[in-house]
Design a protein that fits this description.
Helices cover 36% and strands 22% of the residues. It has helices at residues 15-34, 48-51, 59-62, 82-93, 134-150, 164-171, 180-188, 192-201, 207-216, 223-233, 238-253, 315-320, 339-350, and strands spanning 38-39, 45-47, 64-67, 74-77, 99-108, 120-129, 157-161, 220-222, 259-262, 277-281, 290-294, 308-314, 328-333, 355-357, 369-378, 381-386. The chain has a nine-stranded mixed β-sheet with strand order 1-5-6-12-11-10-7-9-8, with helices on both faces. The longest helix has 20 residues, at 15-34.
């Protein structure tokens, strides 16, 4: 095996792509700051008990474990930053008012989460803590859409769901309660045969509840049409009616060109969502660009049971679906240490120009920069001269 071979589903990022990812990070963090979000930066690894405090989360299976050489305790390399941000809100900030927090950092998955997924993600996101009203959900959804628009994504599509509808169906049948996580997995995958097998594999499982779950798998598409149909075909219980009313109120408050609802989407792989969940899709990406939703109580284990809503996305995935990064205009300058040349180089760089001072015998083999000008000395002064490119 070559000693430079990387582990499966891990990859280097080369200069032009790395620059664009960094530019996206700066653009988006500046965008979040303009909305009043404060930046936090939790550590890459911490004790496993802290990372896995969100009990029952499938996220625990994604966490890579290592041994802390100082304490001997098991640490985890984060697979998602939301539990860490919840810990910061609950344990360190300890505010009584609304907290708007944003973040950006690498996360590592023990296994890739999809056929075309990487194990290392550059996760960026924004979260609101301390407000239970739908207004916080609206702000987060609008900020998520503004994020992909800022990145240059065209014709983004918003998809919504309220897992409370699925929860309400499961609560109708006590036999299904111990299998909630499995049911949600089957629903999210729209695994109709798997749902049908539940009836025979779970003792005392009710036919009506399985049929209602199967019905959820067919309820996706135009938001208004799906909600109207759901009111007709789903059981008319108080909890289901209330959840559909909440979802409809949210839909009516959003002004989005393409807005769909998928009542079988239970929130992806995190499994800590308690309220509305949403995804943003766009042409050019095989999977959701943005995932988010409400996860009230995620900070309870850290000491404070606060309402919370937010979203995150992978900047590497976002960048990979955009048009190829263009080379940046640059100036070539000769090697030299005289004061007049150094003053000119500093002046150009301070004005925002990229100036590459060529080392002796260096050939300009550059992938990221397009050298279209050079710095030459004419009549005793350093001046710019255009180059044919």
């Amino acid at each position: 095996m070559s000693n430079w071979l990387l582990p499966e589903s891990l990859a280097d990022v080369l200069p032009a792509e790395a620059r664009r990812i960094e530019e996206l990070r700066r653009y988006l963090l500046d965008l979040y700051r303009s909305y009043g979000f404060e930046l936090v930066a939790p550590p890459l690894a911490e004790y496993l008990e802290s990372l896995q405090a969100v009990s029952g989360s499938k996220l625990n299976l994604c966490t890579t474990k290592v041994v802390d050489q100082l304490s001997g305790r098991t640490m985890g390399i984060r697979a998602d930053m939301t539990p860490q941000v919840a810990r910061i809100d609950a344990h360190l900030l300890n505010r009584n008012t609304v907290a708007r927090l944003c973040y950006c950092g690498s996360v590592l998955h023990a296994r890739p989460q999809g056929l075309l997924s990487d194990r290392e993600l550059l996760q960026i996101g924004a979260e609101i803590y301390g407000y239970a009203g739908v207004e916080a959900d609206l702000e987060i959804i609008r900020l998520a859409l503004a994020s992909v628009s800022k990145a240059g994504v065209k014709n983004a599509r918003l998809d919504l769901n309220l897992p409370g509808i699925g929860h309400a169906i499961i609560q109708m049948d006590p036999a299904l309660l111990p299998y909630t996580e499995k049911v949600f997995d089957l629903l999210s995958a729209k695994d109709i045969p798997g749902l049908q097998e539940l009836q025979s594999s779970i003792p005392n499982c009710q036919t009506e509840s399985i049929q209602a779950l199967l019905t959820l798998c067919s309820l996706y598409g135009d938001a208004h049409q799906v909600i109207a149909k759901a009111r007709q075909v789903l059981p008319h219980t108080e909890n289901i009616t209330k959840a559909l009313d909440q979802l409809q109120a949210l839909v009516q408050s959003l002004d989005v060109a393409v807005l769909t609802v998928d009542l079988a989407d239970m929130g992806g792989s995190s499994s800590y969502h308690t309220g509305v969940v949403f995804c943003v899709y766009a042409d050019g990406w095989h999977d959701a660009l943005v995932r988010g939703g409400r996860y009230d109580g995620v900070g309870k284990t850290y000491g404070r049971d606060r309402p919370a809503t937010g979203f995150s996305m992978d900047l590497r995935k976002l960048s990979a679906g955009l048009a190829a990064a263009q080379r940046v205009r640059a100036i070539r300058a000769p090697w030299g240490t005289e004061a007049a040349l150094q003053d000119k180089l500093n002046s150009l760089r301070e004005s925002g120009e990229i100036v590459i001072q060529m080392l002796p015998d260096q050939s300009p083999e550059l992938d990221e920069f397009l050298i279209d000008r050079e710095l030459v000395q004419l009549d005793g002064e350093w001046q710019l001269r255009s180059l044919a490119v």
